[in-house]
Amino acid sequence: MKYIIAIIQPTRLEAVKEALSHIEVFRLTVSDVQGIGRQKGHTETYRGHEYKINFIRKVKLEIAVEDMYQEQTVQAIAKAARTGTEGKIGDGKIFILPMDDVMRISTGERGPEAI
User: Fold this and answer.
1) How far is CA 14 from the centre of its chain?
2) Is residue 6 classed as helix, strand or coil in its secondary structure?
3) DSSP 8-state class, residue 22
4) Which helix (DSSP H) or strand (DSSP E) does residue 17 occupy?
């Protein structure tokens, strides 16, 4: 089993959800997050004053999948999260981690059946 964490632009969330539904991945957790990467923030103006925004708003997706679904899940996220044909800095990252075990609290099921 794999635990996939994807950090993407908020504007790409719907496209990623749609791409995942096409490959029948429906179980995911979505969180609003902030971070600093190669974009290094930006400047905004509010009521005539400029403010340096260091943390950029992103969306974090967390998905648990069986090993056989790993590659198609990662490819679906990457394709849907990329802006334009070649992508840009700030499109995000995907982390793939091994997942030793999982347990469904309501039934006590463990392993792939609990996903």
Assistant:
1) 11
2) strand
3) H
4) helix 13-22
Could you identify the residue written with the tokens 């994807």? Answer: 6
Would you give per-residue pLDDT tens digits along the chain (115 residues)?
999 999 999 999 999 999 999 999 999 999 999 988 776 666 777 778 777 777 889 999 999 999 999 999 999 999 999 998 888 888 999 999 999 999 999 999 999 999 8
- H/E element, 37: none
Which domains are assigned to the chain? 2-114 (3.30.70.120)
52, 43 contact by CB (below 8 A): yes
Structure tokens at 17: 């959800």
* pTM attached to this predicted model: 0.85
